[in-house]
Amino acid sequence: MSSNRAEPAGKQKRTRDRRKPAAGRVELSGTPVRRFAVDDFEIGRPLGKGKFGNVYLARLKESHFIVALKVLFKSQIEKEGLEPQLRREIEIQAHLQHPNILRLYNYFHDARRVYLILEYAPRGELYKELQKSHTLDEQRTVTIMEEVADALIYCHEKKVIHRDIKPENLLLGLRGEVKIADFGWSVHTPSLRRKTACGTLDYLPPEIIERRTYNEKVDLWSIGVLCYELLVGSPPFESPSHIETYQRILKVDVRFPPSLPLGAQDLISRLLRYQPSERLPLAQILEHPWVRAHSQRVLPPSIQMAS
């Protein structure tokens, strides 16, 4: 369930103090750094289960603040060699504060587990909404595109490339607003240029498949794939085999159903370009005629006041 789901993780140094496990140096908004232990929480129902651990609905006993507590098993993390991904998830997500990015408030660990204190997204994964309805209408799709694009503009300004935008990694807040999660694959790089393979097959851009140096424009490709999947119900390059999927991606073999609105086709075709430099910039997604015609995005009060 994305970051309300147990996924890639890493190890931290063990603490000798069993009563108060070591805490990450992550500040809660407006409060000093404090040390947490599992006894500080009332643990509720599971929100998701995975290979590396589980995510639970939890409440801080002291303040009654509701969170999602991601509990990861060190043994599994070490076995799979995923320590770098956990460190990346903590280092990056803890410093991102945007209404469409899932907050990582803090973390702590004990001898066997790592605990991430995350923002609770009550409506779960976008993927599950898509499973139920198969496709989304233009207004809902446009709103999601605006929210994801706005969050990615913020990430790229912070020199963060997400690299794994997909419905499973987009959680939904109380009003249905998107919360980008799972920063385990993301990178913080001052140069914004990388050369490692990552991400999800159906969403991989040509430059990653070909193991070329890439930059933040990989996220532009992914948001184009996302737009297609939300409207059509399946990714644009989905094929019976991995090889066929790769081949279609490299050829940018996009087949639009006749029912797909022309405005959406235009936006998607401007994002799914083989050459990263030719992809439509995020800011221009927000100004695209099809997006503007169907926009129903409601900004959070704090953003409205600032604008």
From TrEMBL:
Gene3D superfamilies: Phosphorylase Kinase, domain 1, Transferase(Phosphotransferase) domain 1. Residues 41-291 form the Protein kinase domain. PROSITE patterns: PROTEIN_KINASE_ATP (PS00107), PROTEIN_KINASE_DOM (PS50011), PROTEIN_KINASE_ST (PS00108). The keyword ATP-binding applies. It catalyses: L-seryl-[protein] + ATP = O-phospho-L-seryl-[protein] + ADP + H(+); L-threonyl-[protein] + ATP = O-phospho-L-threonyl-[protein] + ADP + H(+). The active site is at D164 (proton acceptor). Coiled coil: none annotated. Belongs to the protein kinase superfamily. This is non-specific serine/threonine protein kinase. It comes from Enhydra lutris kenyoni.
